[in-house]
Write a structure and sequence with these properties.
A two-stranded antiparallel ribbon has the order 1-2. Helices cover 42% and strands 2% of the residues. The two termini are 17 Å apart. It has 12 helices and 2 strands; from the N terminus they run H-H-H-H-E-H-H-H-H-H-H-H-H-E.
Length: 293
């Protein structure tokens, strides 16, 4: 089934512009999303609950070079590995625990449901709820034998100097680009304020799922999917010198999404059997029956 629906239909407001005017003045309250857990305890990289987090980032920062990213894009953005229903991908995610995440050891499907349910609870439009469900679906890259350090974790630009605002910046000492004069300056291979569409970020599930569904969802949803792990920017503003005016405007949506991704994590899993009819209908509304991976 092809997607013939208008992504903005059935919105409570007449247009995306009206929705933006109404909503971007107020961001969700992290405390209410966190359901009583101290929000300061999230993203604790000084003393992560699992030792695998530090080892993950050591490998990630060592290997995520400019040439590595270009090679992975050529390999995976052809989407010639297999074709399968969205729910088959979710079934795989039900076996995956993210080694880069210090905040949860639930499988990925449970995290996706917690995120999307928090978004739905706050009355956002259905395409926004779908972003919550889809945002980590690109982690199916692990299905093709990719190590987690090439799939998950915070993302950052390659092809220019690594910011010290990136988590565990000391691990970049072993990256092959660190001493390359082509890549180790502020702008590297880029121009000032060239726009993120012209910038290569470290390879992983964000870029993969963005390309997978870019023909089906509105632009705010696509920014959320593509940049939700780009913490050095949406939390630290470390790469303002590469963003253009359109990026700055659209990052309001990334910042709106981020608290749901981060603070909805809790040890209590949602009831999939109860939620399944709603989410099956939501996926059918926006996506084709099968996606290429």
């Amino acid at each position: 089934m092809t997607n013939n629906s208008n992504p903005l239909e059935n919105n409570p407001l007449a247009s995306l512009e009206e929705w933006e005017d109404d909503l971007l003045e107020r961001y969700p309250d992290p405390e209410s999303i966190a359901q009583g857990r101290d929000t300061e305890s999230y993203r604790n990289y000084e003393a992560p609950a699992r030792d695998s987090v530090r080892e993950f980032y050591r490998l990630n920062h060592q290997h995520q070079s400019y040439d590595f990213v270009l090679a992975k894009k050529q390999e995976f953005l052809a989407f010639n590995k297999r074709e399968m229903p969205v729910w088959d991908a979710f079934q795989f995610l039900n076996q995956l625990v993210d080694d880069s995440d210090p905040d949860t050891d639930l499988d990925q499907l449970q995290h996706l449901l917690q995120t999307s349910e928090a978004i739905r609870h706050d009355g956002h439009p259905d395409w926004f709820v779908l972003v919550g469900l889809l945002h980590d679906m690109g982690k199916v890259l692990c299905l093709f034998g990719e190590p987690q350090w090439a799939v998950v974790g915070d993302t950052f630009p390659v092809g220019c100097a690594f910011s010290n605002k990136i988590v565990y910046p000391e691990f970049f000492k072993d990256n092959p680009d660190i001493d390359n004069p082509r890549f180790n300056t502020k702008y590297g291979v880029y121009r000032p304020n060239c726009g993120l569409r012209n910038v290569h970020l470290s390879w992983g599930h964000d870029e993969y799922v963005y390309h997978m569904v870019k023909d089906y969802l509105p632009e705010p949803a696509l920014y959320m999917l593509r940049y939700h792990s780009f913490y050095p920017q949406h939390r630290e503003n470390a790469y303002d010198h590469l963003l253009d005016a359109h990026d700055h405007e659209m990052f309001k949506w990334v910042q709106l999404f981020n608290p749901y991704d981060l603070y909805s994590k809790s040890p209590t899993p949602p009831d999939w059997n109860e939620l399944r009819p709603y989410y099956e209908q939501l996926v059918e509304k926006y996506l084709p029956k099968t996606l290429k991976f």
